[in-house]
Amino acid sequence: MTDALSPAIEAVVARAAAAAPAVAAVEPVVRARALVAVADALEADRDRLVGIAMRETGLTEARLNGEVARTAVQLRLFADTVAEGAHLDARIDPADDAFALGARPDIRRVHVPLGPVINFAASNFPFAFSVMGGDSAAIIAAGCPLIVKAHPGHPELSDATAEVAADALSAAGMPDGTFQLIHGREEGVAVLRDPRIAAGAFTGSIPAGRFLADIAASRPSPIPFFGELGSVNPVFVTAAAVAERADALAAGFLASVSGSAGQLCTKPGVVFIPEGSALPDAVRAAADGSAEHRLLNPGIARAFEERRDAALAVNGIRPVVDGALRFDSEGQGWALPTVLAIPLQAFRAARETLTEEVFGPFSILVEVPEDTDLAALVPEFFEGNLSGTVHLGAEEADGGTANAADLRALVEALARQVGRVLFDGWPTGVAVTPAQQHGGPWPATTNDSSTSVGTAAISRFLRPVAFQNAPAALLPLPLRDDNPLGVPQAVSPTGASQHWGSLARG
């Protein structure tokens, strides 16, 4: 089913569709300069944008300034990636009369942009995963026209950011229709259903993400949909780690749970600790003097209250840090961090209640008996997650302790369930760097082979095309022998097939 578009939304989609060939044809260096121009413009207007964001979201000035910096860094990282051309994955197999299976034709393969993409912006990262955040940067970097559906939690900031970005892209020479912003849930759904849209991106809740993913999959011509949804981010702390640094672990844990009022997709929601360890007392001491923080909006605050109350009602659970939630006269929720503890058996009995993500400053310490198979707990309690963390003692990290095999099994179990395995750190604070993997199996994301952070994020909005025996004049520039763009090219030497298998033989 295709929804009828209002005249205003029809104009947006038509403009994006008409712009697609021109946006795809923009030389990589020009596209790269445009991304840098957006980064520069956002930083130049930082004070005004951060002021709007503070009022609309309740997030702190320091957090929002950090987000602007992160957004600019990712734009510049993608700019260099585009200028260098590795994301195109250009492969050239020249014609080869000595090919092992008979004469090989000339075959050349490169990635090309998908076409117009709609990105549904997030509430909890008003810069880094919103109008000009990571998904938007990846879409433009890939050479696709971008339509952003603004999040209703920060509409004024969305408009202001869009104005800054549109002006910068236009001044940098990008075609009209490269970037557009729309508002409204129904409008976003209608755009996603439109046959001119080639892909979708989303950051938000599991129900909303599943709803949109199902729309993308059920279209007459299904399209890729890259959603980042829910994650509990399990953490495992060994007895040796607690014995060596209980206070430091407690401080890092509290900072990770309570930062930005716990409204982060990488917040550690469940922490497995040794039964009878000193960590709960250390956490209680570290929480002394915690300040309350406003949640993003009243709807999130009410959902947090419901999930928190359900957890507190579970048999066998006890507060380590009581926490609190109050609502002001405008309906905004203000929270103090809540940390609960529960024995493994009681956690197992209440798994349906306690293994769901609680979006807010909340976490559970699960007390595990000494001889428990930690690796087995991962598939028992969790589906996909964005991250999994292991805290080790110093000798355990060197691999020389009696439990080394058990720890390797734990790490392997986590690697099957998450996109990022951390050691001796906390999962909040996702580094913007080429090797980053910010994704994971369902329900962490709708596509467990993709990432929304790092340079690999660009590939989501590209598809491969091979050209066989193409005249040089008709080849895409990245596949030409003279390589006018200077992109990396993987060239298969003629005659090499006669020796395939030799590396395996040794």
TrEMBL record:
CDD domains: ALDH_KGSADH. Pfam families: Aldedh. One of its GO terms (molecular function) is oxidoreductase activity, acting on the aldehyde or oxo group of donors, NAD or NADP as acceptor. Residues 7-374 form the Aldehyde dehydrogenase domain. Residues 486-506 are annotated as: Disordered. InterPro entries: Ald_DH/histidinol_DH, Ald_DH_C, Ald_DH_N, Aldehyde_DH_dom, Aldehyde_DH_Superfamily, ALDH_KGSADH. Keywords: Oxidoreductase. It comes from Leucobacter ruminantium. This is Aldehyde dehydrogenase (NADP(+)). Residues 491-500 have a biased composition (Polar residues). Signal peptide: none annotated.
